[in-house]
Amino acid sequence: MSKLYIVPTPIGNLEDMTFRAIKVLKEVDLILAEDTRTSGILLKHFEIATHMHSHHMHNEHKTVENLVKRLQAGETIALISDAGTPAISDPGFLLTRACVENGIAVECLPGATAFVPALVNSGLPNDKFVFEGFLPDKKGRQTRFLALQEEYRTMIFYVSPHKLNKTLAEFVQYFGADRPVSVSRELSKLHEETVRGTAEEVLKHFEAKPAKGEIVVVVGGLIKTK
After folding, report:
1. CA dihedral (70, 76, 82, 85) positive or negative
2. What is the pTM of this model?
3. Could you tell me what this protein does (predicted)?
4. Cα angle: 72, vertex 77, 82; to 5 degrees
């Protein structure tokens, strides 16, 4: 029976790969990978010989229609990204939506994603939160910050290392120097680190010690006053 499987892969530590994920990747007809070179290392490690096709942000608009036809013909396909859960700031949404619209079964396996451990590690309220992903680079960036000034929920951002200090400075500017911030980098990897403090304190830390690796930033929401 045709089905699209959304399969999370480790964000760093290969031991986070689940038995079920390995089983699915071995049994499907095709694996769609964001970067076949990166995923090839993972598949070789777990002795997965399933054929791969490239599926990334630059070609997904062109490949969705053909993939839907293959699924309708009875194939089973697994979608993976370079790390973490597909469609979370990674390719995957377009194909998933197309499958849903065409009555094709979609099953997302539970597994690794970077923002959950970063949120829990932060020590900030996690009963309600908003995932912002990557902020706009230029157009719309200021507008987004202005809108988030009134956000009461904890906010989660993905930030590239070379933009971290700029982003932290913007947090100081738009949210205030005392707003609580937690920066987690290289989660599940050898040099995993979480730095917590006010926006100003965390900015000073990374100005003195520039960050490297994959980064998730968690920011406390605006405190309600009576």
Report:
1. positive
2. 0.92
3. Catalyzes the 2'-O-methylation of the ribose of cytidine 1402 (C1402) in 16S rRNA.
4. 145
